[in-house]
Amino acid sequence: MNLIDLIRAAIKEDMPHGDVTTESLALKPRSGRARLKAKEDIVLSGAAAFEQTMQLLEPNSRVKWHFEEGDEILNGQIICTIEGDLVQILKAERVALNFLGHLSGIATLTRRFVKKMEGTKTKILDTRKTTPGFRDLEKRAVVHGGGVNHRMNLSTAILIKDNHIALAGGLKAAVTRVREHSNLPIEVETRTLAEVKEAIELNATHLLLDNMNNDMLKQALAIIPEGVVTEASGNMNLDRVHSVAQLGVTYISVGALTHSAPVADVSLVFAWEE
């Protein structure tokens, strides 16, 4: 689903039979200006979705952005100004804010994790734990926050996880079967040092070190050959990630970036003109 289809669906969801409150006021078009204001420190994402939502309901609206996506915005600053028929902009308000608040929330949380990586070479990675239909937008928000995208979907990269291993009858069988049918690099999920050693022997190019404590991560990294990409995952939070990065992993993946980011607090302030 492309962005405009997603916006149309969101507006249809919010107004299946029109906006009965606004329309019952029977107002004539009212030109004016609205200002989008940050009510906390945020990182901006979702500008296109916000602007296109406005323009879908008020084609003559003009949005002037004072910041670019990925910029840090302080509490109280004006993010953008919208001019046009405020009756129509009022109808678009909630859907537009839902897009921008959600995506800026992801970018803001990602930036907090990225700042914890300062002084290390480790990168923050996202996952596929995204809202159905919103993956492209949410992964773009991660990038705006300074993070790195993992595979976009199941079609773009190979990751052999525990259930694949169980279905195939073991790690060696799973890797062998995959190599028979694909030339793509192979990432393997490992949960124990024994699994790490077996994955190394099978020449996996990327090791996912899942739910390991820092001591086990340190032991695993000591036996993993140079050139093998490493990704630590599981129970990663803002208090822990710097200590994991100091161990020397290539990536730390954080599902919370997309599935648990708080919505950025922003509001639309209207200035009606007679």
UniProtKB/TrEMBL annotation:
Single GO MF descriptor: nicotinate-nucleotide diphosphorylase (carboxylating) activity
Protein purpose: Involved in the catabolism of quinolinic acid (QA).
Domain of life: Bacteria
Keywords: Glycosyltransferase, Pyridine nucleotide biosynthesis, Transferase
Matching SUPFAM superfamilies: Nicotinate/Quinolinate PRTase C-terminal domain-like, Nicotinate/Quinolinate PRTase N-terminal domain-like
Pathway this chain belongs to: Cofactor biosynthesis; NAD(+) biosynthesis; nicotinate D-ribonucleotide from quinolinate: step 1/1
Record-listed E.C. numbers: 2.4.2.19
The species this protein was found in: Bdellovibrio svalbardensis
Xref: InterPro entries: Aldolase_TIM, NadC, NadC/ModD, Nicotinate_pribotase-like_C, Quinolinate_PRibosylTase_N_sf, Quinolinate_PRibosylTrfase_C, Quinolinate_PRibosylTrfase_N
Keyword Glycoprotein among UniProt keywords: no
Pfam families named among the record's database cross-references: QRPTase_C, QRPTase_N
UniProt keyword Repressor present: no
Name this polypeptide is given: nicotinate-nucleotide diphosphorylase (carboxylating)
Domain Quinolinate phosphoribosyl transferase N-terminal stretches: 19-104
Boundaries of every Quinolinate phosphoribosyl transferase C-terminal domain copy: 106-268
